[in-house]
Amino acid sequence: MQKIVLVNHDLGQGGVSKFIYDVALEYKKRGLKISVISLTSMSDIYGKELQKEGVDVIYLSDKDEKYSIKNLFRLIKKLKPFDIVHANTYPAQAWTACVSIFLNKKQYILTEHATTNNRRRKKWFRYIDSWMYSRFNKVVSVSNETNRNLKKWIIPSKEQAHKFFVINNGINLERYYQVIPLRRESLNFSVSDQDVLICMAARFSQPKDQLTLIRSMTELDEKYKLLLLGHGDTAKEVNLVNQLKLSHRVFFMGYRLDADKIIKSCDIAVLSTNFEGFGLVVVESMAMGIPIICSDVDELSNLVGNESLLFEKGNATDLALKIKNLVENKEKYLKIVQGCIIKSQKYSLTKMVDEYLKVYDMVLP
């Protein structure tokens, strides 16, 4: 049986770590030999959860050394037993590409999760990225937009065209269909059943844009309350909340393993962002029957597919208007809830894993 390893820079909060967690468990469920390698054990969340489920998790360091040359030598040593090496996000992608020079008999797969990144602001990085992607046997993008942007950036040759694929992310639909909401009184905030509860679950870092969502609260009535879930530096957001005198309506909850139950207890979810590769939290919210309003960017507009659930990026007034229009029209709200559940059915974890296993089969001898 072939040995598979998923590689990432960490296993902390975020959609990519959740992707690795879900995929690893599904592989294990299907009887595959699966391991996970993380460049660091810092900010570890999903690694611990995978270990509880019996998945082999290997940490290369207990420090934040993701850009250290030490990773090359550590990976060369740790990747020797594996047949398929599946890299996710930079710089784990870059170190894996370097390893392929020394361990060139293995099959290397890369998943591109973002429609853009900071490297693409520097023209000279195009040459580095072009080389990096060329080292992988197959390159999978999580959306059509991600795939188009990647090809536009690295300009692959005709000979390399066969190696690019699109596989949409998927979730364990049955799990999200059955989520039981938390009772609002258990949230330990001044929130009642009469309030309109809004939430956003995302890391406090670029490209996410919690600031626009906070500003939108000034244009909504007192009954609207906001829960912000996620790790990261919240200094700017906390300062803005205090400046706008919203501390009685905007609550910071940190990272929560029960984020799904909190989202389920809300009336509306929001994903305010400057760009997005796929938006796993969008599908999760839809599967739970919670309408999610998103920035009108990249793949989110295709994923949501409803103008009433999209607002102009960075426009707090437009966001507030979309929230009010949805909440104040009960018939429309219920119709969108049903539409969300139906749309989520396209994005199942089992379907996604089936597609990845087909890609693996393509590269195996």
Structural overview:
The chain is α/β, with parallel strands linked by helices and 365 residues long. It folds into 2 domains: 3-170 and 348-363, Glycogen Phosphorylase B (Rossmann fold), CATH 3.40.50.2000; 174-344, Glycogen Phosphorylase B (Rossmann fold, 3-Layer(aba) Sandwich), CATH 3.40.50. It has 15 helices and 13 strands. It has helices at residues 15-29, 46-52, 70-78, 92-102, 125-134, 144-154, 173-177, 210-216, 235-243, 259-264, 280-287, 298-304, 316-327, 330-344, 349-363; strands at residues 3-8, 33-38, 56-59, 84-88, 107-112, 138-141, 164-166, 196-201, 224-229, 250-254, 268-271, 292-295, 310-311. The strands form 2 sheets. Strands 3-2-1-4-5-6-7 form a 7-stranded parallel sheet, with helices on both faces. Helix 4 crosses helix 5 (125-134). It is globular, with a radius of gyration of 21 Å. The mean pLDDT is 95.
Question: Topology as H/E string?
Answer: EHEHEHEHEHEHEHEHEHEHEHEHEHHH
The Rg value, from CA coordinates, equals 21 Å
Q: Might you state the CATH topology name of the largest domain?
A: Rossmann fold
Give the strand order of the largest sheet, numbering strands 1, 2, ... along the chain.
3-2-1-4-5-6-7
GO biological process, one term: carbohydrate derivative metabolic process
Keywords: Transferase
Pfam family, one: Glycos_transf_1
Domain Glycosyl transferase family: 193-336
List the helices and strands and how they pair.
Elements: E1 3-8, H1 15-29, E2 33-38, H2 46-52, E3 56-59, H3 70-78, E4 84-88, H4 92-102, E5 107-112, H5 125-134, E6 138-141, H6 144-154, E7 164-166, H7 173-177, E8 196-201, H8 210-216, E9 224-229, H9 235-243, E10 250-254, H10 259-264, E11 268-271, H11 280-287, E12 292-295, H12 298-304, E13 310-311, H13 316-327, H14 330-344, H15 349-363
Parallel strand pairs: 1-2, 1-4, 2-3, 4-5, 5-6, 6-7, 8-9, 8-11, 9-10, 11-12, 12-13
Helix pairs in contact: 1-2, 3-4, 4-5, 8-9, 8-13, 11-14
